[in-house]
Amino acid sequence: MTKGAGGPRSAGETHPKRPTSQPSGRQIAPGRPSLAVRAVEISIGWALRLTAVTTTLGTYAAVLFDLDGVLTPTAEVHMRAWERMFSDFLARRGDTRPYTEQDYYDYVDGKPRYDGVRSFLASRGIELPEGSPDDQPEAETVCGLGNRKNREFSGVLETDGVRAFAGSVRLLDQLTDQKVAVAVVSSSRNARPVLRAAGLLDRFEVIVDGNVATERELPGKPAPDTFVAAAEELGVPVDRAVVMEDALSGVAAGRAGGFGLVVGVDRGAGADKLIESGADIVVADLGELVTDGPS
Ligand SMILES: [Mg+2]
């Protein structure tokens, strides 16, 4: 809707791609819509799109939910556990470049545990032996570091418990009323304990988690295979299924799988990056997709 807004363009005229990219102090040419007008046009376009998604969501055959950061605020728990583990690991090596939140979003978020370790280490040019999933958390191996992070995560889950996002539960209730099938697709091996702790375990007929992926040798996100497996298990073609994800890797998986709709949930990855990775629309909370609106 915003493309070409303001009528035909004269030769050599260039519109900024986004209103925010216009240098400050730049004059608006006569006849060109002002920044404010273009910003309003963009937000109207976005609102129409959100309304379209909200009203058509119930017509899809299935919705496949990521877990951490989409249904439960456990992304933050994972994030803290990763940070504690990697910061300690880097400090012990005498590496002064700190592990940052951006590292989490760029290399770790949404991926299977050991892939996350490998990906971050590669970004720092650090090589460790792979080890094996049976490695003790103290082992200086890819698997050892992954297990160390999991020990941190399980500790927090046990002491603090977990409560599902209220907006996500409302959307889940609505979809169940509309007879839309629902599944959880999570890279985490902790998906079932987290769902149980949040009181949601019996709400999903299909759960494709990190354990299922390992058993069936399915590559993790950003590969689409775990989402495709969930759709197959529900007996739903991918173009009739919706993917809901908060991680760039998960959104990319939804796009790569050819799903009917990919909803990005911005819990910190950034709306722009989620769109770049393949989200059709981005919301801040799933309550925005409930037909009677967020509350
Ligand atoms: Mg997630």
From TrEMBL:
Could you name the domain of life of the organism this protein comes from? Answer: Bacteria
Which keywords label this protein? Answer: Carbohydrate metabolism, Hydrolase, Isomerase, Magnesium, Metal-binding, Phosphoprotein
Keyword Ribonucleoprotein assigned to the entry: answer is no
Name of the molecule in the record: Beta-phosphoglucomutase
Give the Pfam families listed for this entry. Hydrolase
- What is the reaction catalyzed? beta-D-glucose 1-phosphate = beta-D-glucose 6-phosphate
Annotated region Disordered: where?
Answer: 1-32
Family note: Belongs to the HAD-like hydrolase superfamily. CbbY/CbbZ/Gph/YieH family.
- Enzyme Commission (EC) number: 5.4.2.6
Q: Top-level EC class, please?
A: isomerase
Checking InterPro entries in the record gives:
B-phosphoglucomutase_hydrolase (IPR010976), Beta-PGM-like (IPR051600), HAD-like_sf (IPR036412), HAD-SF_hydro_IA (IPR006439), HAD_sf (IPR023214), PGP-like_dom2 (IPR023198)
- Gene Ontology MF: a single term: hydrolase activity
Q: Which cofactor does it need?
A: Mg(2+)
Give the organism, scientific name.
Microlunatus elymi
The answer to keyword Thylakoid applying to this record is no
